[in-house]
């Protein structure tokens, strides 16, 4: 049973009969239970709004005010969270701590800014990853594909570590922001307090918290430690899934070793409870310890094995076959590849150390995709032969091979609707047989685009 957690895309050749739900679809549908919306009380004065928005928001109730950790993504949703928090306490919001600069933790802040003098805390290098994406619009279509923003709800079960709240279908016009969208990107100028030291201890509304700067998914992280209650808030440096050491939307190199260091730092707290930015909180000291330790060990194992393979001269394509998790980590339900994938992590590590060249001089100046496709056509006796083999592959459920052959056909003529349909069908099949939500989104989004004239 647990074996299916490591099912690879290529397993599409052993699918269930046509029309039945694949086991990966069933697994992802079940996963949606993790995102049921609820205010979860994790201590006498700490409440986590989980499953409402793309990320969790925590409220800590102090003597004469409250502190929030993170601010969600969509004001129409966070205003509901605000109302639900208000049912618990009417005390004013005195502080908001932003764990990192991603929009799913910041763009929903507006409903929380009505009280006077709200302090907003963030790391000094807040938005470090956004600086990269600002370079141009090149990241936008990839972001849309990864998030499945243009897919109909039936094609988008969840996002692996979050419910699919965006773009959503049930928002009224009156709930849109002034720019006509569901949110306005967070304005960094709203931050009132930047953390410049490695650790800063702050007291707001009688609550003392330690803010630890940390690196991993992004380098602008603040890990929040609430010593009086033994609660750890790791932001996105932990969530219940194999971590996204590389985001397929495109990202600058995520330093795997720094992520490991951050996890080691978090383990020193011996937290009783952990409320991460995504997925439901983990309660109980031994559960927190196991979760963090396995997460750390999984990242370290992937890193060490990749380096070991690189030292043997393996190429990225060979490394993805070389690296896998040991049994006990494979069987950890919190390390299922709902969001990140081991093979993407392996390629990321290779790229971080050696760049794009795989060491094979054939690849120093390869044929263009079109030249390669034309040579293949000649070898097989015509372009029609490539198409014939691709269709046969699809019939035999060799979906990856069908997609690769479709690429050759499209390299010759990318306006041919029959080739485009062929690739779209192959991608949709691949989508059905992967448990990684963002891979599914990407396959289905590109399939949808291919069907447009
Ligand atoms: Zn996040």
Helix content: 25-40%
How many beta-strand segments?
A: 13
What is the architecture of the domain at 36-294 at the second tier of CATH?
A: 4-Layer Sandwich
Structural class: alpha/beta
**H/E order of the elements?**
HEEEEHEEHHEEEEEHEEHHHHHHHHH
* Rg (CA only): 23 Å
| Main beta-sheet annotation | 7 strands, mixed
Query: Quick one: CATH superfamily of the domain at 36-294?
Result: Metallo-beta-lactamase domain
Approximate strand percentage: 5-15%
As laid out across the biggest beta sheet, the strand order is 1-2-3-4-5-6-7
Q: Output the number of helix runs.
A: 14
Span between termini: 42 Å
Supply the key terms.
about 450 residues; seven-stranded mixed sheet; six-stranded mixed sheet; about 35% helix; binds zinc ion
Describe this structure in words.
The chain is of the alpha/beta class. It has a domain at 36-294: Metallo-beta-lactamase domain (Metallo-beta-lactamase, Chain A), CATH 3.60.15. 37% of the residues lie in helices and 13% in strands. It is built from 14 helices and 13 strands. Strands 1-2-3-4-5-6-7 form a seven-stranded mixed beta sheet, with helices on one face. A six-stranded mixed beta sheet has the order 8-9-10-11-12-13. Strand 10 and strand 11 form a beta hairpin. The protein is globular and about 80 Å long. The model is unreliable at 1-17 (pLDDT under 50). Zinc ion (ZN) binds next to loops.
């Amino acid at each position: 049973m647990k074996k299916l957690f490591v099912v690879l895309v290529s397993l599409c050749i052993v699918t269930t009969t046509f029309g039945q739900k694949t086991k990966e679809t069933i697994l992802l549908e079940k996963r949606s239970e993790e995102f049921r919306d609820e205010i979860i009380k994790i201590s006498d004065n700490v409440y986590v709004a989980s499953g409402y928005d793309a990320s969790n928001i925590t409220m800590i109730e102090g003597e004469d005010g409250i502190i929030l950790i993170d601010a969600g993504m969509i004001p129409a949703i966070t205003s509901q969270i605000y109302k639900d928090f208000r049912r618990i306490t009417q005390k004013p919001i005195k502080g908001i701590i932003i764990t990192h600069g991603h929009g799913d933790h910041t763009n929903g802040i507006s409903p929380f800014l009505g009280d006077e003098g709200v302090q907003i805390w963030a790391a000094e290098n807040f938005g470090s990853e956004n600086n990269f994406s600002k370079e141009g619009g090149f990241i936008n279509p990839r972001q849309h594909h990864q998030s499945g923003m243009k897919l109909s709800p039936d094609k988008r079960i969840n996002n692996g570590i979050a419910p699919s709240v965006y773009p959503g279908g049930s928002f009224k016009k009156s709930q849109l922001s002034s720019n006509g969208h569901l949110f306005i990107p967070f304005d960094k100028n709203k931050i009132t307090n930047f953390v410049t030291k490695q650790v800063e201890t702050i007291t707001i509304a009688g609550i003392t918290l330690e803010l630890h700067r940390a690196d991993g998914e992004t380098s602008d992280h603040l890990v929040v430690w609430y010593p009086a209650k033994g609660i750890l808030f790791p932001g996105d440096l932990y969530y219940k899934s194999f971590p996204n050491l590389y985001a397929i939307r495109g990202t600058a190199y995520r330093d795997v070793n720094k992520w490991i260091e951050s996890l080691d730092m978090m383990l020193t707290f011996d937290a009783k409870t952990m409320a991460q930015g995504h997925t439901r909180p983990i309660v109980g000291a031994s559960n927190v310890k196991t979760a963090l330790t396995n997460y750390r060990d999984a990242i370290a194992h992937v890193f060490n094995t990749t380096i070991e393979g690189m030292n043997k001269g393996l190429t990225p394509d060979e490394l993805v076959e070389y690296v896998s998790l040991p049994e006990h980590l494979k069987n950890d339900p919190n390390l299922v590849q709902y969001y990140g994938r081991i093979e993407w992590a392996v390629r990321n590590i290779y790229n971080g150390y050696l760049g794009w060249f795989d060491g094979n001089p054939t690849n120093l100046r390869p044929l263009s995709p079109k030249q390669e496709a034309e040579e293949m056509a000649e070898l097989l006796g015509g372009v029609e032969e490539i198409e014939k083999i691709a269709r046969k592959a699809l019939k035999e459920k060799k979906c990856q091979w069908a997609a690769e052959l479709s690429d050759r056909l499209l390299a010759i003529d990318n306006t041919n609707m029959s080739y485009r349909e062929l690739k779209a069908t192959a991608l949709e099949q691949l989508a059905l047989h992967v448990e990684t939500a963002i891979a599914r989104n990407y396959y289905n989004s590109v399939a949808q685009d291919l069907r447009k004239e």
